[in-house]
Design a protein that fits this description.
The complex is a heterodimer of chains A (about 375) and B (about 300).
Chain A lengths: L1 H16 L5 H13 L5 H12 L6 H13 L5 H7 L14 H16 L11 H9 L7 H12 L8 E8 L5 E2 L1 H8 L11 E7 L3 E6 L5 H17 L3 E6 L3 E3 L1 H4 L4 H11 L9 H16 L5 E5 L11 H12 L2 E6 L12 H9 L2 E4 L3 H10 L11
Parallel strand pairs in A: 4-5, 4-7, 7-8, 8-9
Antiparallel strand pairs in A: 1-3, 2-3, 5-6
Helix pairs in contact in A: 1-4, 2-3, 8-10, 13-14, 14-15
Chain B lengths: L5 H9 L7 H13 L3 E5 L5 H12 L3 E5 L6 H4 L1 E3 L1 H14 L7 H8 L5 E3 L1 H6 L8 E5 L6 H13 L1 E4 L3 E4 L5 E6 L7 H5 L2 E5 L4 H11 L5 H16 L8 H14 L6 H11 L3 H7 L3 H9 L1
Parallel strand pairs in B: 1-8, 1-9, 2-5, 5-8
Antiparallel strand pairs in B: 3-4, 6-7
Helix pairs in contact in B: 1-2, 10-11, 11-15, 12-13
Classes of the chains: A alpha/beta (about 375), B alpha/beta (about 300).
């Protein structure tokens, strides 16, 4: 009796520790324990494991919880604090960096202070046009606010790709025999109307890798607004940030409310405004994510100024080359491209330029609109060799 | 055969030359006894598919395999009407009644009967098979798309399907279901919750040695020890794709074929491509002198 009560307790314990456990699974666990030798600790462990765990990354958490709980089922609450996974998974560090939060609040206060500087009346067309061409770096806080509002309403003309799935389509190229026969029964077994079908079309997956190091700070915030609009516009968008480490922020950006999304971001991105290690971060991406998110002809947006001073161990070159080979199209968005005649002079910039498919500016609203348009265009052939 | 414990499962599979670790055996045992699908995730080449094959063979059940791919739909996974035959049947009915007057209702009942139904793997798995309920292997589920996952949800919780023209078909006895994924994308939690889950890891040293002994008996003991030590050390390296058990077996066979009595730098240079399939990994490992030295100490 007490044993099954303990299983129920254990399930609750797991739930508090961040493993989602349903009541159905508890029933399964009880039935499973009837079948194994409960005096063998290892059997009990693996029986409960196969019932409660649904993802590989829960393995460690489960092992800790199991050890803690079955040592002391009653007093295990104290142990919880040391077990808790980051609530929204997929991040490299556990402790939320206070520094970032503070930095974030300071930025907001600053934004309120210099609101008086905006002189253009925002409603007029010429003001909007000016706004479109104004470099993000030179905007006042009020202007930034307007740009954000415009970005939020931005919609993207996706160029759909054919999938392998077929749907009914009266003008499709293939005859759907099954439906044709069904219809023919209405006309006395004579197939008069041919039912047709075509491939289903849907937008390709999009993976965004966004540089948030110090040199990109002003741009990357604006770009995050752009990405928020993008993520909520369609499915199959994955967004990562990188500075000194790679962080997946897709889940945070899914919040419709931009403020909620950003509040969550500030807590989960540890390396805001720090240094850059593009090569190392892209390698992490290759190893941990590329195979999971680059399937199905994905397009990649790489948002960075390419300011990697050197690439001594060839990590950046390797990573970029592999990225360009695995993705259908890699578009490098570069704020430095606003100065015409800019050549990718840094080592990092030269390497990026060698492998990516397209190089675009990203410093003002007009360039973001151009980008949105480009995403709807046909890709321009293979990468330069 | 009546399975009463995880040990029974281990013995059963050992008879089919599959060395099964206790955690996997426990998961399999519970999945079979409680009639739940078993979801196996893990790197390619750790024996996820193989376990289902050996299980079917040893239990003397039929193995029904559904290889997943993008765009897999009901007509290739579940059933399809044999439309060509149906059309011929319509013509025959007309020929039998030259002046018209075909009984349409009767014709329709006949056209949508079992005779014109083409069974695909999932439907076949719900039907009684010789030797008892079959083993259904849904392989590389991560290759399909979300709509197919949603479709599987219903099938895997009730083990029944409804064919509009024919009615509901329910499995008299639940098949043993094994799903595998290489995790090229995350499979939805709702589906995983209906299954028991197990992550199949690379085998430990002793387990890999045992597998090698069973599967490549022509490889002598000393070479086998060295091969396993080399591969285990290689997996600890920072590689894009670490070699699986399948690669270990291939490599051991390659070394035997090359006439290498033991692991030497020369033999490794000749055959490393069997273990590592990415150019970057081959470059990173290079001559592997330290790995060879480590292997030869084994």
């Amino acid at each position: 009796v007490s044993f099954s009560a303990n299983v129920v307790h254990f399930a609750r314990f797991l739930r508090r520790a961040g493993v989602p456990v349903g009541t159905g699974q508890v029933e399964d666990a009880l039935r499973a324990l009837e079948l194994v030798d409960v005096t063998r600790r290892v059997d009990v462990f693996w029986a409960l494991h196969c019932v409660f765990v649904t993802r590989h990354d829960q393995d460690d958490l489960f092992a800790h919880a199991f050890a803690a709980f079955w040592r002391d089922p009653a007093g295990s609450n104290d142990e919880l604090a040391s077990l808790r996974l980051p609530a929204r998974g997929e991040r490299d560090v556990v402790e939320p960096p206070r520094r970032v939060l503070e930095a974030w609040h300071r930025a907001r206060r600053a934004a309120r202070v210099d609101e008086g500087e905006a002189t253009d009346s925002p409603g007029t067309a010429s003001a909007r046009e000016l706004l479109r061409r104004r470099d993000f770096e030179q905007m006042s806080a009020a202007e930034i606010e307007q740009v954000r509002a415009l970005l939020r309403r931005m919609r993207f003309p996706w160029r759909d790709r054919p999938t392998r799935r077929r749907v009914a389509d009266p003008r499709g190229p293939k005859v759907d025999l099954r439906r044709t026969l069904q219809r023919s029964l209405r006309t006395g077994g004579e197939p008069i109307v041919l039912a047709r079908r075509d491939r289903r079309w849907r937008p390709p997956p999009l993976v965004v890798l966004c540089d948030i190091s110090g040199s990109m700070e002003r741009y990357s915030r604006m770009v995050l607004h752009f990405l928020h609009a993008l993520t909520n516009d369609r499915d199959r968008v994955e967004v990562f940030t990188f500075g000194t480490r790679l962080t997946r922020i897709t889940r945070a950006l899914r919040h419709r409310d931009v403020d909620v999304a950003f509040a969550e971001l500030s807590g989960s991105v540890p390396d805001w405004g720090g240094g850059t290690r593009i090569g190392a971060c892209l390698e992490t991406f290759q190893r941990r994510w590329a195979r999971r998110v680059l399937g199905g002809g994905a397009e990649v947006l790489l948002i960075s100024d390419g300011l990697e001073r050197s690439d001594d161990d060839g990590a950046l070159e390797r990573a970029v080359r592999r990225l360009a080979a695995a993705a259908r199209r890699v578009i490098w968005l570069d704020p430095h491209l606003r100065w015409s005649g800019f050549r990718a002079e840094t080592e990092g910039g030269r390497i990026l330029a060698r492998w990516i498919h397209e190089h675009r500016p990203v410093h003002d609203l007009a360039s973001l609109e151009d980008l949105a348009r480009a995403l709807g265009e046909r890709p321009r052939g293979p990468a330069p060799a | 055969m009546d399975l009463r414990s995880a040990t029974d499962v281990m013995e059963l599979l050992a008879g089919g030359q599959y060395v099964c670790a206790r955690p996997l055996a426990t998961a399999l045992f519970l999945a079979i006894r409680l009639g739940r699908p078993l979801f196996l995730e893990g790197e390619p080449g750790v024996g996820k598919t193989e376990v289902a094959k050996v299980l079917a063979e040893r239990l003397e059940r039929r193995l029904i395999r559904l290889q997943c791919y993008e765009g897999l739909d009901a007509s290739s996974a579940l059933y399809e009407w044999n439309v060509a035959r149906q059309l011929v049947q319509v013509r025959l009915a007309e020929a039998a009644h030259p002046g018209g007057g075909v009984d349409e209702a009767a014709l329709e009942r006949e056209l949508y009967g079992e005779r014109f139904l083409l069974e695909r793997p999932l439907l076949a798995a719900l039907r009684p098979q010789p030797g008892g309920a079959p083993v259904l292997l849904i392989d590389e589920l991560d290759r399909t798309d979300e709509p197919f996952e949603a479709f599987l949800l219903e099938l895997l919780s009730d083990f029944q399907v409804t064919i509009p023209e024919l009615g509901t078909i329910r499995a008299p006895e639940r098949p043993i279901v094994v799903l595998t994924s290489n995790r090229t994308r995350e499979v939805h939690d709702a589906l995983k919750r209906r299954c028991f889950y197990h992550w199949v890891d690379y085998p430990g040293h002793d387990q890999e040695l045992a597998i090698l002994g069973l599967r490549v008996p022509e490889c002598d003991k000393r070479l086998a020890r060295q091969v396993v030590a080399f591969v285990q050390a290689l997996r600890r390296r920072d590689l894009f794709k670490a070699p699986g058990i399948a690669e270990t077996l291939d490599w051991a066979r390659a070394l035997v074929t090359l006439g290498a009595g033991e692991v030497t730098e020369e033999a490794v240079a000749d055959s490393l491509g069997v273990l590592l399939k990415y150019q970057d990994d081959l470059e990173a490992v290079g001559a592997a002198a330290d790995l060879v030295a480590e292997a030869r100490r084994a």
